[in-house]
Specification:
Structural class: alpha/beta
Distance between the termini: 14 Å
Strand content: 25-35%
């Protein structure tokens, strides 16, 4: 099969011929129809692709058709799996003609959903669900601030928070992107390149602050994110696009305001912990995709052979939402 390999240091891609992988006891083999790009894979130091060594299979999420299953694979709550099923899930090495998925990470693709849309769901929308619903406990009528709101995770967070009935505030350095985000559920758009949004957010909230902040940017805006939290507010850390991983913390404010800070990463989670999130997402979110209430925002679709061009597009930071690789035959 053809598969894209990524040098984890140089961040260069190369197309290689590799054997079709065999599913392990609790894995499924999928014929990939579409796969989407995630910024973290192309950021040196994020710990996703590794610190060095030989080129590694590239890709993190995909959608496709089940063609083989391990002997221990059993139906589970979110997806009773069978050969020929349309599925989506986390897929290390997903930029390939075939990819493996852990059975517990697999979700059924609604019949009304296109392959390209399905490929955008397993990471961006599960991460957003983890921050907004599972960890962020956002409720109808509450306020949510999303920094770097035009990213794939940012757009997913806007859509989910809007669907929950929350008031959504978002920041971006592009006015054009903010105008487009308003059509997706963004209520208040703030043109911002850094931590200069505190005054505007407090004004919008009547100086009460917001119940949830999603920090897609990193340490350069961390302190500002804390400053805009309401009493018992929650702060989710999901990315370090700015490369800044250190920041000051006002411990007195943390203590007095009973604030919560939580990270959103699957790096150290067990398979059972990931499965719990997948199960909750399948129950609460998949019906919204099936009905069309939630629909991934795709900036551009690339042919399989054009992955390096897609990588360049991601690194240019000119897109809104997701970039997708098409393999449908």
């Amino acid at each position: 099969m053809k598969a894209w390999m990524l040098d984890p240091v140089a961040q260069t891609l190369s197309l290689a011929e590799r054997a079709v992988p065999e599913p392990g006891p609790q894995q499924v083999l999928v014929k990939v129809k579409a796969a989407s790009l995630n910024r973290g894979e192309f950021l040196v130091g994020m710990g996703i692709g590794g610190a060095g060594g030989a080129p590694k299979p590239s890709g993190m999420e995909a959608a496709g058709e089940v063609v083989a299953m391990g002997e221990q694979v059993a139906p589970h709550a979110s997806c009773p799996i069978a050969i020929g099923d349309r599925v989506m899930g986390r897929a290390p090495g997903g930029f390939a003609e075939y990819a493996l998925m852990d059975a517990q990470d697999v979700m059924a693709v609604p019949s009304s959903m296109a392959w390209l849309d399905a490929a955008c769901v397993p990471i961006a929308y599960l991460v957003a669900y983890d921050m907004v619903i599972a960890g962020g406990e956002l409720q109808k009528g509450q306020r949510c601030l999303i920094t770097g709101a035009s990213s794939g995770v940012g757009v997913a967070s806007i859509q989910i928070a809007h669907a929950m009935g929350a008031r959504v505030i978002g920041t971006s350095s592009s006015q054009d992107k903010l105008d487009r985000l308003k059509r997706l559920g963004l209520d208040d758009a703030l043109l911002s390149r850094g931590p200069d949004f505190v005054g505007a957010v407090l004004e919008l909230s009547g100086n009460k602050g917001v119940e949830l902040v999603i920090n897609n940017v990193g340490g350069s805006v961390f302190e500002a994110c804390l400053q805009v939290l309401a009493y018992q507010g929650r702060l989710a850390l999901v990315g370090f696009v700015d490369g800044v991983k250190q920041s000051a913390i006002d411990l007195d404010r943390m203590h007095a305001q009973r604030l919560k800070i939580f990270g959103v990463s699957n790096k150290l989670r067990s398979a059972d912990q990931r499965a719990q999130t997948v199960s909750g997402f399948a129950k609460n979110m998949l019906p919204l995709f099936a009905s069309g209430t939630l629909k991934p925002v795709i900036e551009k679709v690339f042919e399989f052979e054009d992955l390096p061009k897609a990588q360049q597009a991601m690194q240019s930071n000119s897109h809104l939402g997701k970039l997708v690789l098409k393999l449908v035959s």
